Amino acid sequence: MSEFILETRGLSKNFKGFAAVSDVSLKVRRGSIHALIGPNGAGKTTFFNLVTKFLPPSSGTIHFKGEDITHEAPAVSARRGFVRSFQISATFPHLSVLENVRIGLQRKLGTELHFWKSEKSLSKLNDEAMALLDEVGLGRFADTTTAEMSYGRKRALEIATTLALEPELMLLDEPTQGMGQEDISRVVDLIRKVSANRTILMVEHNLSVVADLCDRITVLTRGSVLAEGSYDEVSKNPQVLEAYVGSDDMSDAHH
Amino acid sequence: MTSAFQPQPEFLRLTDVHAFYGESHVLHGIDLTVHKGECVTLLGRNGSGRSTSLKSIMGLVGRRTGSIMLNGNQIIDEATHRIARRGVGYCPEERAILASLSTEENLTLAPVVASGGMSVDEIYDMFPNLKERRNSPGTKLSGGEQQMLAMARILRTGAKLLLLDEITEGLAPVIVKRLGEVITVLKQRGYTIVLVEQNFRFAAPLADRHYVLEHGELVATIPREELPEKMDWLQQTLGV
Amino acid sequence: MEILGMPTAVLASQLLVGLINGSFYAVLSLGLAIIFGLLNIINFAHGAMYMMGAFVAWIALTKFGISYWGALVIAPVLVGAFGVAIERILLRRLYKLDHLYGLLLTFGLALIVEGVFRDQFGISGQSYEVPEALAGGIPLGFMFLPTYRAWVVVAALTVCFGTWFMIEKTKLGAYLRAGTENPQIVQALGINVPVLITLTYGFGVALAAFAGVLAAPVFQVSPVMGSNLLIVVFAVVVIGGMGSILGSIFTGLGLGVIEGLTKVVYPEGSSIVVFVVMVIVLFIRPAGLFGRS
Amino acid sequence: QISDSVVKIGVLTDLSGQYSDLAGHGSVLATKMAIEDFVAAEKPAFKIEMVTADHLNKADIASAKAREWFEREGVDTVSDVVTTPVALAVMKVAKDKNRLVLGTAPAASSITNENCNDVTIHYGYDTYALANGTAKAVTQQGGKSWFFLTADYAFGHTVEKDASAVVTAQGGKVLGNARHPFPGSDFSSFLLKAQASGAQVIGLANAGADMANSIKQAAEFGITPTQSLAGLLIFISDVHSLGLKNTQGMYLTTGFYWDRNDETRAWSKRFFEQQKKMPTMIHAAQYSAVYQYLKAVKATGTDDTQKVMAQMKKTPINDFFAWGGKIRDDGRMVHDMYLVQVKKPSESKYPWDYYTIKATIPGDEAFQSLADSRCPLIKK
Amino acid sequence: MIRNRSSQETMTRATLAILFVFGLVAPFAIYPTFLMKVLCFGLFACAFNLLLGFIGLLSFGHAAFLGVSGYVCGMMMRDVGVTPELGIISGTLAAGLLGWLFGVLAIRRTGIYFAMITLALAQMVFFLVLQVRATGGEDGFQGVPRGHLLGVIDLSSNMAMYYLVYAVFCFGFFVVHRTIHSPFGQILKAIRENEARAISLGYDVSRFKLVAFVISAALAGMAGATKTLVFQLASLTDVHWHMSGEVVLMTLLGGLGTIFGPLVGSALVVTLESELSDKVGSWVSVIMGAIFVLCVLTLRRGIVGEFKALLKRVGVS
Ligand SMILES: Nc1ncnc2c1ncn2[C@@H]1O[C@H](COP(=O)(O)OP(=O)(O)OP(=O)(O)O)[C@@H](O)[C@H]1O
Ligand SMILES: Nc1ncnc2c1ncn2[C@@H]1O[C@H](COP(=O)(O)OP(=O)(O)OP(=O)(O)O)[C@@H](O)[C@H]1O
Ligand SMILES: [Mg+2]
Ligand SMILES: [Mg+2]
């Protein structure tokens, strides 16, 4: 088994001649939390979209556990244990919190196309769903309609649902965006908790979060990798400081 | 009433403003006053009603009651576009860049409402990313670029009251720093600014006064001078 | 020489006839596309407005002695004003809702308008003569081209491209496009969006009325003249890409020609060819020929 | 014995759609007039009621309505039933329930051929009579080569078939046809095709708005002066709406013309006073049929369908609509038809002065003979 | 919250029970043919509602399923001579098959494009029905016998026919209800709420939509076949796009996404059509038009939807 769970080779994306991502070769180590940072317009979201197959690459390949998945449908990759979460809160707002998680679990039963079965046949998933909810601290909200919950809790629910798929690799796109400090710390704790035995790749602007969580950081500028390393290494790199922070102290950039 | 002898005439005054979305009552009687050339912030947790306060000024909520005086005129019953024409620039938290227009069209869309706005060139100097992508469709910009554009387009119109909702969201620290400088310059030029911010580190040095909202109500007003002593309390209420 | 089993002369004349019909499609679908684009409403009353345009021309002539040329101005203005009233009173309440409601409401409107006209003027239709100045025809060698039909093409194309220019190339057009997308924000930037919307609906409807006046001397002026055409015009808009201005113009013209050819090769199929084209196009280009996906 | 001591006549017609001018409210009015006249003249001992409904040109609605009338409201006869699909659907229900159908408005000759039954009378006209009358006259006058512009549905096909047979029988030739979708609006492509065929006569096997537009556009493309048009199903309401300028010189066959004699004029003027339009042949036939029916009810003293039917079949019809008309065993009401030519605008002296009667076609010649009938009721 | 939900369920159950009993005794009070028509269209609208109300797919071609199934059933009954239940089954299967074909072609499109592509396909079906000789074209396919159910029960009596229609309706209604409340239905709900998220959770969204589409088409077909039996004819009306429009109206009028809405909507439309045509003549379309306009302006959630909202408001205060 390879040491790297996700690997891109020479990944590029051009929009009408504009190279948003050019020749990015990135390796994500199994079991690590890997962050992607960089100035605005550096190509982070585009890279993310390429890896999650929301955009087709102009060239280059994507490998998951050594297999080339460049041209696989997103749903198929998801079933391999390669799951993305969304920038905007991605829940099913009018389902209850428990049902939300159950949707994630349901595929395992293999009855998802059984339109003649009763809904009650899903109750056997309830325990498992509750366990997941407890894990993210949402146990007491199981019967709440999702739309009624606060932003931070929705975020947590989304992660619980994602966990239901037993993902080996989770991709998080700006998981703390738009959150108050309180929610941010909750989500950071959560990510740390669920990262056990998993790999996480995330895009994040909040450097305190990055500093807090991440084992390894890749810095993109103008579509290419500018630097890669641990937080300490990266934060000392003068090029990074100039392009991204605009001063000579990385901690200036913490929120 | 405003008097010509006051050095800082009152520019915006909200009195007992209530706001509703459909049947849900979100603001429960807000009172606040901003003088010409001041910068104030609205602080609060997620959902405390900060964005709604800005939207109420612009007339973008379902229904509002109370009084909103702008430069001596009652605007609570005015249509949104009229309010804008009185010199209010609004930068929404969702950015709302228009996909059917190019970056430059987005930038130049808003009609100029008063003299003294920035020129397009000045804006491009401030945000070089935008210049580079000027012909690209607006929503094809990166998240941060869209944020810059949303801010930039109201700087052009000459609006003297800026309502800025989470403008540092999703921006790289370099740009956040630049924005801080811009706001300082704007203040010097006599602009009046209402900031809604999560990024307290960004907002604190800029603001003359902080208003703290909770559940749609104003719970505290903290002038800049009192900030150090109130820091603990703030930390508790907001988690900053 | 023969193409598709037809002498070239016959083919040429059929192509020309197709183009003429295409001009009607283009003007109608253009109005529909503008309305959909800005108001997000699928204007099922478009056919009724077209019919009203033709009737206004007919009434103007028979009751008030106003000539065709007068009608060409009056009908769009009157029907446009009717549209403005409709927008102000009814459609205004639906903007935040699903397309479905606008469609249902305008469908109801179409029923009402058609019903009233049917009651007033009967079903058989009225005859409207070709105006003096455009009577007669031009012998082209391969066919006899009625002058009036030539005028239809010229007038329709002028209006279509004029509209396109206004929307794509002027500031007003930028307001329109922006207002379509996010009326609230555009209004917060200081633009009077409600008026913009009202006028756009009025303009789209006026285009339909204009087509109606153009059609009056060609077809019987009857209360159902619009509803028969409407579904084809919808298809045109969809094939062109919902809301795309150029798309609706070119698709309108193109489909007129394709339909014309079908009428020669397999006449029975001419009512269906539009839908065949639609299925093929949407299968290959999910957002239509000119649509943004 | 009269059931519920009321004779109930249903007028099932198109009150709002395509055919509401040629049948529709006019048929309702004609029925009302027939009932009033009958009551005034014959002083019957039974009560007469009329019910009306709009079938929206849908066979299923018509059939449901007829069924409801029969099952719930005790309607004795359903009349008008404009358009063939409607008529066929209603005939099936009527047969099941053993009630009478007075088909004064549908066109297809199949009603008294393969689809005939013993509860239906086809009154007034049919495609055979119209096509036969017009095509024969036009061919005889030298229009030997024909091209058909045909509405692509059962009705159009029947008319085309009936007329082609006549044309060939008269030594003419059919050069081709174009089948246009129904309903259509632009016919120029088809007309150009007809023009290219070089035929002397373009036979219009379509109706209503389609026919009107074909005629109008033929004039526009300069086809009419060189080739002539023959309308195979034209009502006076069509001529009225198209105007004489567009229709002048056309030949057509009709079962009734209001200005034919004093009797027709007298009745038509009464009709006109209320309807503001002159009656079509359907309206006149409707009056006549209802009147005949009521007479038969009075004569037999019952509203039993078979008895009334037998009575009607043996009673000759002599009124302003038909002189010497008779109802055959296949249900066909046979009477004289008229070949007319549309006047030039300059010849028209007063409102609705539209036709010159060129010939009277005796009933037996106008309609398909019993010998050729494909109706199973006719034993050969 | 929980209590709220279960009390709502109890109410639905109670309504169901009352309606069921009502359905059993109704033909003694109300004209059965009318009831049968309401039930047929009600089933049709329920089938349609499954798509629009619960997945958000607006099909503008549902007439094709209603109509084609009617013709197939008619042919099987009249020309092949099968028993009524086989007629209905074959019509249903034919519609299901056609639905699958439509679905494969259309399912990847969304919104208005989905509506238009289904409309286009339905227009082609209309064209075929018009052109093929066996259907009787414009004249319709007439003279379908009602036959004997299972070869035993004579359906020519309206009462016998009514109970068959009622049974078919209840079955169809149950299928819809079950589908919504099944593991499959859960995923459908999820797809409607957030399609992108459902994909990212590994569900092949098109497949779910396709299955739902086929179910809906088959049920629409079942309604069409039954209707053919009742009226003993299949006609072009059933395949025409107006019919596709009418079912949208019924559903919206009754209440989109509600369980009873489609039935109420169809009852209303059928009643209006038959009552108005006798009384107001040519004003019928004006009145219908005015009703739609009013409905859109004031009863947006449909009759059942507004009623539920009212109950909720009363219950809360
Ligand atoms: N669909 C597109 N068409 C054209 N240009 C695009 C498109 N998507 C992105 N771009 C351009 O590619 C560049 C990279 O964009 P991307 O969204 O990946 O940036 P990012 O690193 O996520 O930035 P941010 O931090 O601001 O979100 C930007 O300059 C953007 O304008
Ligand atoms: N369009 C809307 N319809 C209904 N309720 C709304 C709407 N927008 C906001 N709300 C509600 O109003 C309250 C205040 O929202 P607001 O957006 O003003 O909060 P905020 O302080 O800006 O927080 P955030 O950090 O989430 O932007 C919240 O409870 C929110 O759920
Ligand atoms: Mg980004
Ligand atoms: Mg906010």
UniProtKB/TrEMBL annotation, chain A:
PANTHER family: ABC TRANSPORTER ATP-BINDING PROTEIN (PTHR45772:SF3), CONSERVED COMPONENT OF ABC TRANSPORTER FOR NATURAL AMINO ACIDS-RELATED (PTHR45772). The lineage of its organism: Bacteria, Pseudomonadati, Pseudomonadota, Betaproteobacteria, Rhodocyclales. The keyword Membrane applies. PROSITE patterns: ABC_TRANSPORTER_2. Signal peptide: none annotated. Keywords: ATP-binding, Cell membrane, Membrane, Nucleotide-binding, Transport. GO terms for molecular function: ATP binding. This is ATP-binding cassette domain-containing protein. The keyword ATP-binding applies. It holds the Pfam family ABC_tran. Residues 6-247 form the ABC transporter domain. InterPro entries: AAA+_ATPase, ABC_AA/LPS_Transport, ABC_transporter-like_ATP-bd, BCA_ABC_TP_C, P-loop_NTPase.
TrEMBL record, chain B:
Pfam families: ABC_tran. Keywords: Amino-acid transport, ATP-binding, Cell membrane, Membrane, Nucleotide-binding, Transport. Gene3D superfamilies: P-loop containing nucleotide triphosphate hydrolases. InterPro entries: AAA+_ATPase (IPR003593), ABC_transporter-like_ATP-bd (IPR003439), ABC_transporter-like_CS (IPR017871), BCAA_Transport_ATP-bd_LivF (IPR052156), P-loop_NTPase (IPR027417). GO terms for molecular function: ATP binding. CDD domains: ABC_TM1139_LivF_branched. Residues 12-240 form the ABC transporter domain. Belongs to the ABC transporter superfamily. This is ATP-binding cassette domain-containing protein.
From TrEMBL, chain C:
Keywords: Amino-acid transport, Cell membrane, Membrane, Transmembrane, Transmembrane helix, Transport. Belongs to the binding-protein-dependent transport system permease family. LivHM subfamily. It is found in: Cell membrane. Its main location: membrane. Signal peptide: none annotated. It is a multi-pass membrane protein. The chain crosses the membrane at residues 12-34, 41-60, 66-86, 98-117, 148-167, 188-217, 229-258, 270-290. The keyword Cell membrane applies. It comes from the Bacteria. InterPro entries: ABC_transp_permease, BCAA_transport_permease. It comes from Aromatoleum bremense. This is Branched-chain amino acid ABC transporter permease.
From TrEMBL, chain E:
This is Branched-chain amino acid ABC transporter permease. It comes from the Bacteria. InterPro entries: ABC_transp_permease, LivM-like. The chain crosses the membrane at residues 12-35, 41-74, 86-106, 112-130, 160-180, 210-235, 247-268, 280-299. It holds the Pfam family BPD_transp_2. The keyword Cytoplasm does not apply. The keyword Membrane applies. It comes from Aromatoleum bremense. CDD domains: TM_PBP1_LivM_like. Its main location: membrane. It is a multi-pass membrane protein. It is found in: Cell membrane. Keywords: Cell membrane, Membrane, Transmembrane, Transmembrane helix.
